[in-house]
Design a protein that fits this description.
With 414 residues, this protein is of the alpha/beta class. It has 2 domains: 158 residues, Rossmann fold (3-Layer(aba) Sandwich); 222 residues, Rossmann fold (3-Layer(aba) Sandwich), CATH 3.40.50. Helix content is 44%, strand content 17%. It has a 6-stranded mixed beta sheet with strand order 3-4-14-9-10-13, sandwiched between helices. A 4-stranded parallel beta sheet has the order 7-6-5-8, sandwiched between helices. A hairpin with a 2-residue loop joins strand 11 and strand 12. The radius of gyration is 20 Å and the shape is globular. It binds pyridoxal-5'-phosphate.
């Protein structure tokens, strides 16, 4: 196969929270104390043996790590490559998100904070936070847009079952970005006893680096698992990019490997028309959102655009700053996959392997089909896809979309 441009990545702790020009801390003065306190605690405990032992213990005994690296036999035959899935769908809760919420909850307790708050869009991060809150007996409150609460009733119910309180947010577009604003407001007012448990590699420093490090377990495991199975590294890695946490978690430990090509897949939705997609890196421009400088989707006046994707977890108008840096460096190739292509890949994985992936993860899988053709891949080429979550949460959306497709109305432009 043809190889990607491969420079070396200087992988270390970002100075002043910057990845090149991206990242930083664009927050009101009142939040600076909280961010500094968090960074100090993070830098201290990430090195501490006791903390890492405890984190490892809960990841193994509670979350179900290490997750398998599974070689798809029938789908590999169909595609003409060796296709491996990193099974984050088998993490407790049904997605990679728990890797991060367990880590941050343990950190919060070390900092003497017994109350955690979080934002959620589709409800997956809210649920993973509620699970961690119940596990450790922490008071847990989740901010969620009214619009999202309406669309994701079952996830709201699950969070409440776990003992979390869900606060409806009625401001703005009543979706994820408004929930983040509300959570930040709460944090400012209650910083003494409260930790803000952010769900992806976004927001002000130290969140992008801290969440990345908690998700790195995906790539670290993948590395020893593929070496054990194939005695060599993969030719390509593929993951979907919403905020960017499952993808950077898989990619990070391979960024220095010249022979590994790396692909991040964004949601092309119904087509590249404002409001119809979530392809931030591929079509956006630079600016500040939620405390960080990165690519984002905005209009000419700098107003944040709304997003669409058939995958609820890919609906975010921003993206982690480290991804913006990796894009500019040419170390990761970012591309888009439409609703229709993702749905097709989802059906394929169900029929060929008996695995129902999350609609988010189906975007990564769909991209592999294109990669095989464009990069002229063959039977010896190894591709690892991050299967970030399971699709049980999406069955209603899938059912409706397939019915629409069969009726001939289709899913839109592409
Ligand atoms: C939330 C979510 C995503 C997107 O978030 P990232 O931070 O980009 O990983 C992807 N897949 C699943 C299953 C999710 O729940």
């Amino acid at each position: 196969m043809q190889k990607q441009n491969n420079k070396k990545y200087i992988s270390n702790y970002p100075r002043a929270g910057k990845f090149g020009v991206y990242g930083g801390q664009f927050v009101p003065e009142v939040l600076m104390h909280a961010l500094n306190e968090l960074e100090e605690a993070y830098l201290r405990y990430r090195e501490e043996e006791e903390f890492n032992k405890e984190l490892d213990y809960y990841l193994r005994t509670f979350a179900g790590r290490p997750t398998p690296l599974y070689l798809c036999s029938r789908l590999s035959d169909l595609l003409g490559i060796r296709l491996y899935l990193k099974r984050e769908d088998l993490v407790h809760g049904g997605a990679h998100k728990l890797n991060n919420t367990i880590g941050q909850a343990l950190l919060a307790m070390r900092m003497g904070k017994r109350r955690i708050i979080a934002e959620t869009g589709a409800g997956q991060h809210g649920l993973a936070t509620a699970i961690a809150g119940a596990l450790f007996g922490l008071k847990t409150e989740i901010y969620m847009g009214e619009e999202d609460i309406e669309r994701q009733r079952l996830n709201v119910f699950r969070m409440k079952l776990m003992g979390a309180e869900v606060h409806p947010v009625a401001s703005g577009s009543k979706t994820l970005k408004d929930a983040i604003n509300e959570a930040m407001r709460d944090w400012v007012a209650n910083v003494r006893d409260t930790h803000y448990l952010l769900g992806s590699v976004v927001g002000p420093h130290p969140y992008p680096v801290m969440v990345r490090d908690f998700q790195r377990v995906i790539g670290v495991e993948t590395r020893w698992q593929i070496l054990e199975a194939e005695k060599r590294l993969p030719d390509a890695l593929v993951a979907c990019v919403g905020g960017g946490s499952n993808s950077i978690g898989l990619f990070y430990d391979f960024l220095d490997d010249e022979d590994v090509s790396i692909y991040g897949v964004e949601a092309g939705g119904k087509g590249i028309i404002a409001g119809m997609h979530s392809a931030t890196l591929c079509t956006g421009s630079k600016g500040v959102l939620h405390g960080t400088y990165s690519y984002l989707l905005q209009d000419e006046d700098g107003q944040i655009l709304s997003t669409h994707s058939i995958a609820p977890g890919l609906n975010y108008s921003g993206v982690g700053p480290e991804h913006s840096f990796l894009k500019d460096m040419g170390l990761v190739t970012y591309d888009i996959v439409s609703d229709r292509e993702a749905l097709h890949a989802l059906e394929l994985l169900c029929k060929y392997e008996g695995i129902l992936p999350a609609l988010e993860s189906a975007h990564a899988l769909a991209y592999v089909e294109r990669l095989v053709k464009e990069k002229d891949m063959g039977r010896d080429d190894i591709v690892v896809v991050c299967l970030s979550g399971r699709g049980d949460k999406d069955v209603e959306i899938i059912e409706q979309a397939l019915a629409l497709q069969q009726s001939g109305l289709g899913l839109g432009v592409r």
